[in-house]
Design brief:
Strand content: 5-15%
Radius of gyration: 23 Å
Number of domains: 2
Helix content: 40-55%
CATH superfamily of the largest domain: Winged helix-like DNA-binding domain superfamily/Winged helix DNA-binding domain
Structural class: mainly alpha
CATH architecture of the largest domain: Orthogonal Bundle
Distance between the termini: 65 Å
Amino acid sequence: MSDSPGIPLLTPVEARVLATLMEKARTVPDSYPLSLNSLLLGCNQKTSRDPIMELDEAQVASALDTLKSLGLAHDVSGSRTAKFTHNMQRGLGVYEQAAVLLGMLMLRGPQTAGELRLNTDRWYKFADISSVEGFLEELQERSAEKGGPLVVLLPRAAGAREPRWAHLLCGAVSASDTPAAPARADSAARIEQLEAQVARLQRTVDQLCAELGLAPAAD
């Protein structure tokens, strides 16, 4: 693929299968390469996936056929059960660090550079956020001769502190295509809950002070 004038677009299912192979190669190496059933279970995980999918064996097998034809996955011989490996780095002609970032973006959707550094920790330990940003910028500025950009920096969403990056292996992405990160809404809810707890504790302290004849602590 790295010698081709453009990068063939993947379907969301193909991207999920490829990213799952990449993840398991690094997080459970003793169980890798993956059988079709193990790969299916990994694709349909309810955690560390965005979006969550409900694929069947036929969908995963079809995706594997396409990925193999593109040089992004391989069969492994020597086992009674068919097993599969990814060939992401060589297939796309990118550095290991860039492949890791692309795999995580395919697996979890758009993320900030900080989120990518945290989420890829078991795959590859980036020295700092600047190094993550450096590889992302290289992927964004990839020349047409090498196939063109593979990621894009999305406009910063309203209320967000940092912009998020998205991969382009499934086609162009716009900010309107990607929902706001739920973690921000969860954070706001947690803050409100903590504020309510602090208010209740303050009322309790004031009541105890009154009962004991003590002056409440000054702010």
